Amino acid sequence: MTEESAPRWRRRALRWALTVLIVGLVGYFFAVALWDNWDAIAAEQLAFSPWWILATVVFALAVPLTGLLWGHMVRVLDTDPDGRVSVAEAIAVQCASWLLKYIPGQVGSVVNKVVWAGKKGVSRSLVLITFVYENVFLQFASIVPSALILLLSLGPEIFGENATLLVVPVLVLVPLAAVLYPPVFHRLVSIPARRALKREVPKEYFLSTGRTLAYIVGFLGPRALNGIGFVMIAATVSTVPPAQWLPFAAAYVLAGAIGILAFFVPSGLGVREAVIVLVLSQYIPVAEAIVISLLARLLSTVGDGLVALIYIGIRRTIPKEYRP
How confident is the model at residue 265 (pLDDT cuts 50, 70, 90)? Predict the structure, then answer.
């Protein structure tokens, strides 16, 4: 073995070892989550409904749709025509980042995108900026419409009586709003970039106000799919008339957003289920609301299994050197 081939072999072995480790960790934590969620709902002895299959598929489709929006954003902002992100690449990268959430800390989601950017030849700074945009847009698309729907449906009392769970996360949007104003966001990014990278971040990497608003509207799509899937599930457990579809969907979407911001909320563990039960109990018995929240958690986990299948299928269509 030559001196040049030895380091190449070691790098390849290290890459394979890291891949096996990451896949193993994701698989382990996914299995634990699936088992725990099944254990929580098994005692209810619910009759199987075909709507569960459709709801699971709808949950899963929200992830590639988010990938399409993220990929479009990268293409719009990327000034290098040689580093264009294809639709398949955007979906595969998004699915991989989504599945890496099972590794505690969720750092893997952003690391996955940054590492892939290096393979593809896309600016890592651009990918980091679009990652921030993506998550801020998802939070706005989750919290603002949901809060308005619940405010109109249940009145301000629901927020006043549950300020810790519902009001504090809404207030978190205030500092996040800085991202929506290009000059402020550019300045926030440029200061650490100058110190760490010794260079300026191009202004072309930031969305205009008009495009920012357009993407916020676009990111309503994945959240709408989440809400639709949840209403399907709820209707198999309780009677949910059409007048309650929007509040039920809003409860689930808002619960997901608050769960992501759980470090701002005391007793963050199980905060999603707490928000769902809190809102749904205004319409149906608490016992039914609890069952719906647990069933939704189980089926969303199964949906992540479908996301893994989407990732495996689409990844095979991408050239090996660019596969995430």
Answer: very low
Q: Worst-scoring range by mean pLDDT, 6-10, 62-66, 88-92, 94-98?
A: 6-10
Q: pLDDT band for position 264 (50/70/90)?
A: very low
The answer to whether the predicted template modeling score (pTM) of the entire model surpasses 0.70 is yes
The residues, ordered by sequence, that sit 6+ positions from 28 with a Cβ below 8 Å of its Cβ are: none
CA distance linking residue 52 with residue 42, whole number of Å: 15
- The Cα 158–Cα 151 span in angstroms is 8
Distance of alpha carbon 125 from alpha carbon 193, whole angstroms: 9
User: DSSP character for 85?
Assistant: P
Q: Check if the beta carbon of residue 291 is closer than 8 Å to that of residue 44.
A: yes
| Residue 111 buriedness (CB in 10 A; 0-12 / 13-18 / 19+) | middle
What's the N-to-C CA distance of the chain in angstroms?
A: 30
Whole-angstrom distance, CA of residue 253 vs CA of residue 251? 6
What percent helix, strand, coil does the chain show, rounded to 5?
80, 0, 20
Tokens describing residue 314: 């689409």
Does an H or E element contain 198, and which? none
Domain that holds residue 136: 5-322
Q: What are phi and psi of 48, to 5 degrees?
A: -60, 140
Task: Tell me how many domains the chain contains.
Answer: 1
Of 28, 174, 195, 22, residue with least CA distance to 109: 22
